[in-house]
Amino acid sequence: MKNEGGIDRAIRILVGLGIIGWGYMNQNWWGAVGAVPLLTGLMGWCPAYSLLGINTCPMKKDAG
């Protein structure tokens, strides 16, 4: 089940790519840290959100 909304996901993807790029440019291990927000943004699910009971994903409306 997804627990991240669209804006949250977009921010995570951009931040993840930025950290990976910064780490690559500076040739340090911080680029690997960027994989965390990138992957959680791509999946739409954050394990920390699940543990803390946070959900930024909008609720779906019933068609009935």
Overview of this protein structure:
Helices cover 62% and strands 0% of the residues. By secondary structure, it is an all-alpha fold. The protein has a domain at 6-10 and 17-52. 14% of the residues are buried. The model has no long low-confidence stretch (mean pLDDT 90).
Search tags:
64 residues, mainly alpha, 4 helices, elongated
Helices and strands, with pairings:
Blueprint: H1 6-26, H2 30-33, H3 35-43, H4 47-52
Helix pairs in contact: 1-3
Helix content: 55-70%
- How many helices does DSSP assign? 4
Query: Describe the biggest sheet?
Result: none
Structural class: mainly alpha
CA gyration radius, whole angstroms: 14 Å
SSE run = HHHH
Strand content: under 5%
Question: Which overall shape is indicated by the principal axes computed on the Cα atoms?
Answer: elongated
The average pLDDT score comes to: 90
Number of strands: 0
Uncertain residue segments: none
Q: How far is it from the N-terminal to the C-terminal residue, by CA?
A: 22 Å
Describe the structure in brief.
The protein has 64 residues and is mostly helical. Helices cover 62% and strands 0% of the residues.
